[in-house]
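Target chain:
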Amino acid sequence: MADRPSTQDNRNDEDDVRRIEEIFSELESAFADHDAARFDARFTADVVFTAVNGTRFVGWEELHTYHRERLVGHAEGIKTWYEIENITFPTPEVAVVVFRQPIVIADHKRSNVGTWVLVKKDESWWIAAGQNTGVTAGA
């Protein structure tokens, strides 16, 4: 069997974990306020993001246009939050965040799961890529 590297061993300091958790808290708050500008504040200019429905957005402008339409036109009555399951650091400047995102709409509840890649530039963390997937009932 080949010797394979592990990317899960690298741990950054607690400040990096806290900063990343704060980004997700701000995402929750911006969603609740239907504020797409705040929601998209930590995405990179060249972000690549795949939404739950499989639509891929390349670049901040495309993603922001989508979020602005979704948050202003379709987010009323929706409550959502992020439950971070794991943060790993393949390198000190790269974080992989795995999370669950419960979504409650009136009497209906569903969940998404996500894997996002964050990069550290000039001591700040930025969301560079994201993949969200809907969870089927019972999963």
Observations:
- The two ends are 32 Å apart (CA to CA).
- The chain is about 25% helix and 45% strand.
- The longest helix spans residues 14-32.
- The helical segments are 14-32, 36-39, 60-73.
